[in-house]
Amino acid sequence: MFSVIKPLLTEKSAAKMSDGLYVLQVAEDATKTSVAQDVATMYKVDAVSVRIVNTPDRRVRFRGRKGVQGGFKKAYVQLKKGQELPGFEVKKEKETGKDKKAAKETK
């Protein structure tokens, strides 16, 4: 059974993908070595370093009722230079002619 559950795609994690740093939600019993091995077998890439963070539970309110949203474990995986995970490409917006002209005027 793999320890990687799913990728965590946020604005912050998308900005770090260009540097080869990926954020993944992992199982509660996952370790750094198990995450590195799973990433290597699933995506055929080499992990240089793995950092693991336990996110705490959060207190929430929904329709006047109090509750707890459970925490989870996430891993920051740094890949070798030049490697990237397939399917994680972030599309960049193309500048239109008007945007280029406006950018030149502000300079």
Task: Write a structural description.
The protein has 107 residues and is of the alpha+beta class. The chain has helices spanning 11-16, 32-43, 97-106, and strands at residues 4-7, 21-26, 47-54, 58-62, 65-69, 73-79. The chain has a single domain (4-106), classed as RRM (RNA recognition motif) domain (Alpha-Beta Plaits), CATH 3.30.70.330. It contains 3 helices and 6 strands; from the N terminus they run βαβαββββα. It has a 4-stranded antiparallel beta sheet with strand order 1-2-6-3. The mean pLDDT is 88.
Would you summarize the structure shown here?
With about 110 residues, the protein is α+β, with helices and mostly antiparallel strands. It is built from three helices and six strands. It has a single domain, classed as RRM (RNA recognition motif) domain (Alpha-Beta Plaits, 2-Layer Sandwich).
Q: What percentage of residues falls in helices of 4 or more residues?
A: 25-40%
CATH class: Alpha Beta
Rg is 19 Å
Beta percentage is: 25-35%
How do the helices and strands follow one another from N- to C-terminus? Answer: EHEHEEEEH
Distance between the termini: 54 Å
How many E-type strands?
Answer: 6
Largest sheet: 4 strands, antiparallel
By CATH, the topology is: Alpha-Beta Plaits
Structural class: alpha+beta
Shape annotation: flat
Instruction: Name the strands of the widest sheet in spatial order.
Output: 1-2-6-3
